[in-house]
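In response to reviewer comment 3 from the previous cycle, which asked for concrete evidence that the modeling workflow produces usable outputs, we include below a single protein chain processed end to end. The sequence was submitted unchanged, and the resulting structure tokens are shown without manual editing.
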Amino acid sequence: MQLLKENTVAEIVSKKLGSDHVFSKYKIDFCCGGGMTLENACKESGVEFDVIKQEIEALNNKITGTLNTNDLDIQSLINQAKEGYHTSISEYIFEIAPFAAKVAEVHGAVHPEIVEINEHFKSVQSVLTETLKNSLLSLYPIIEEVVEVNSKQEEIAIEQLQAFQKVVVRNEIAQKLVGDTFKEISKLSSHYSVPEGACNSYKFLYEKLHELEHQVHNYMHFEKNVLIPKVLEIIA
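The workflow returned the following structure tokens.
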């Protein structure tokens, strides 16, 4: 794929391995804002198109042995979501929660922003947990039913289509909320810049929050721009 200014951010993340890291570096939203063209994304972030292009191409060329998600069938994508994204995000949440509370309690008087960050994280934790549950118990089973009906060359029931649309909308609302909350966390933490003289717990917290943000953005992109479009292809 040749990188062009008119390519959307979502298209690039789907087809250029490593581009998600480059976009994160320049604070370009590749999940909820994935429909933006690369040209507009560069203008908004204040980076030259050629700089982005060169970095993406260089990183993409270094990455080998990684399977392109566009080559997977729908069931394989669902399995990847469950075994990969759901597992890692849940582990990050479990790991971060006690540190966020501890750092807020110990350093909140001197750094009041960490108290706000802790509250934002609790919001992210709640919404993400519910969203993952929604996908596991509603979205994926509905998709699997649709795939099975389609494989039998039978007509997909209107009730199935309505249920699919309803759960997708619900997830999109939740993803927007999570994305906006992470923007606030990033802003409050000066993009995860640890204060001078911060303890190891403080450093660990910012490091893991940054990693979680990146993983969540990848998951939201995966579901919104890879999995859902594949399902829409068979129900259109």
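The mean pLDDT is 87. We consider this sufficient to address the reviewer's concern, and the full set will be provided in the supplementary archive.
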